[in-house]
Each structure stands twice: as structure tokens, then as C-alpha cells.
Amino acid sequence: MTKILIVGASGQLGSVLTEKLQDKYGTDNVIASDLRMNHSFNGCFEVLDATDFDALKEIVLKFKITQIYHLAAILSANGEKAPLSTWDINMKSLFNVLEVSRLTNMDKVFFPSSIAVYGNDAPKNQTPQDYVLAPSTVYGISKVAGENWAKYYYEKYGLDIRSIRYPGVIGHQSLPGGGTTDYAIDIFHKAVKNEVFECFLEPTSVLPMIYMDDTIRATIELMEAPKENITVRTSYNLSGMSFSPEELAKSIQKIYPEFEIVYKPDFRQKIAESWPSSIDDSTARADWNWKPQFDIDAMTSIMIEELKLKYTTELNIS
């Protein structure tokens, strides 16, 4: 029987992925975990510090876990504020997941990478799957190291670990979590609340993005793909759409013509400039039939409708 442990289940991606996996495998077969208790969680939740090897192993053995989705990490913008602790936390938690998985003969492991693995020298447009990885942030450095360790554990121990290089993930389910692409979430909250949005990137800074529904579907499709189809044992490029803050604002203005955006670039602009503008994900398309379903206007429409409902509900409750 499939028993899944999600490490970092309370985060932006983890909270949505957990629900989808519960729907697919049954609530009792998905164990959520994070640093702090989630009292509103529907299902089995364990408090876990992923840097604690013994605590992680205890949960894996207790619930007879067969798959781990390791989502816990300090993201790019927050990571630059404390580089050494970011490296320590991101790598130690990954090593623990890899070693516990090896020792317990785990069926599959999922490890998220990022477009942050690319650096200034990479082609900006349609960045290829196999281009040299020379990241400019400690977050990116930790992801490159993680990709190589994933490949090592597969080749040396046969651990079936799979990975996606996520672009900026946009969803209505939670607030931004400390990444450089966070503006593309926060902007919708400001629009729905009829507030001016102050953007920390330049208006023309184009970055690869993906809507949450596509992100979750891609993750599950990769994990369910036949093992023999997986040709990339570092991490797969994944693409949804690419746009700039200016283009996103124009999409929002189709619904809210009076929406205002002002630009005050900060340290995150330099991070954004080191990343690709678009990603070549042809390998993912060939290996496990990946194809995105949402473009910028479709995403904008859903984000606004969902957030309008959220804020209306909150106001009615208060």
C-alpha cells in the first residue's frame, strides 16, 4: 500500500499537494508534517524538523512510509539574508531524507529543484535542460547540489528520486513564502483589495511562471510515470508561461481597469536578472507527456475569482 510522507506540508506548494494526494490515495495514507502543528489540518499531521534525522526516521518507520515528498526549504530571497544557515538547513534536511529513504528501501522520493539553478551565463530564452548550472544565490547553489546528490543516490543505491525545476509558482491558497517570484502572488491580493501594488522588480523583468494547478499536476504526473521513462536523474525543466510585472498588471487591468502598480526594485531585481526568461521543457514533454493548461489570462481570472471569494468570506466572518 502507498503511504506518503510530505515534509513541509504547510507551505505554499505543500498545502495544495497534500490535499490532492489525499484525494488520490486516501486521507489515512498521506502523512503531513512541518515545523509547527497545523490544528486546522484534516488528516494525520506530525510535527517534524527535517534536520532531525532520528525524528524523520521514526515517522517513516511508524507509518510504514513508501514515498516521501520533500518540500521543506528556505527560498531564494529569504536565503540571501542568511546564506550559511540557508545552506545548512536546505542540505541537512535533504541528506536526512536521502539517507532515511536509502535505509528503509523507500519506493520513491520527490525533491523540488528550481530555475534558480541557472546563472547569468545561461541563455535567457528557452534555457536548455542540460546547460551548465552556475547559480547566483545560495538557494540555487543548494538546489544544484541537491540535484547532483539525487543523481548520486539513484546511481549508487538505486533510490528512485525524481525532481522538477519549478519556475515561479502562483496560487491563491497561501501567501508568498519568501521567493523572488512572490510579486506575482502578492499583486493579486492587492488588486482584489483595491490597493496600489508596489513591485520589487522592474516592469520588464520577464520570468518563467506556472499556475498552481499545473504545478501539482506536473508533480503527480512525474511521480506516477513509469520508472523506465525517467531519463533525467538530476531535475526536469518545467515551463508554464513567461511574463513581466508589466504584462501581469495589464492582464489584471482587463478585469480591474483602475488597478495601479508602481515599481521600486530592490535586491531581488539582481536575483531575477540572473534567471532565465523562458525554459525549454521538451524533455519533460517527451518523457512523461507534460503539457501546461493555463496561460496568463486564464490564471488571472481564476486568481481574482478565488481571492474575491476569500476576502468576502473573511469580511462576512469578521
Brief sketch in words of this structure:
Helix content is 43%, strand content 15%. The chain is α/β, with parallel strands linked by helices and 318 residues long.
Model description:
The chain is an alpha/beta fold. 43% of the residues lie in helices and 15% in strands. The chain contains eleven helices and twelve strands. Helix 6 packs across helix 11 (296-317). The protein is globular and about 55 Å long. The mean pLDDT is 95.
Largest sheet: 7 strands, parallel
Percent strand equals 15-25%
Order of helices and strands: EHEEHEHHEHEEHEEHEEHEHHH
Could you name the ranges where pLDDT drops below 50 across 5 or more consecutive residues? Answer: none
Radius of gyration equals: 19 Å
Could you state the oligomeric state of the chains shown? single chain
- Can you tell me the overall shape? globular
How far apart the termini lie comes to 44 Å
- Please tell me the overall pLDDT: 95
Helix content range: 40-55%
Number of strands: 12
Number of helices: 11
- What would you call the structural class? alpha/beta
Q: Strands of the largest sheet, in order across it?
A: 3-2-1-4-5-6-10
List keywords for this structure.
7-stranded parallel beta sheet; globular; 12 strands
How is the secondary structure organized here?
Elements: E1 4-7, H1 12-25, E2 30-34, E3 44-47, H2 53-62, E4 67-70, H3 76-79, H4 83-103, E5 108-114, H5 138-157, E6 161-166, E7 168-170, H6 183-192, E8 197-199, E9 207-211, H7 212-224, E10 236-237, E11 241-243, H8 245-253, E12 261-263, H9 268-273, H10 282-288, H11 296-317
Parallel strand pairs: 1-2, 1-4, 2-3, 4-5, 5-6, 6-10, 7-9, 8-12
Antiparallel strand pairs: 9-11
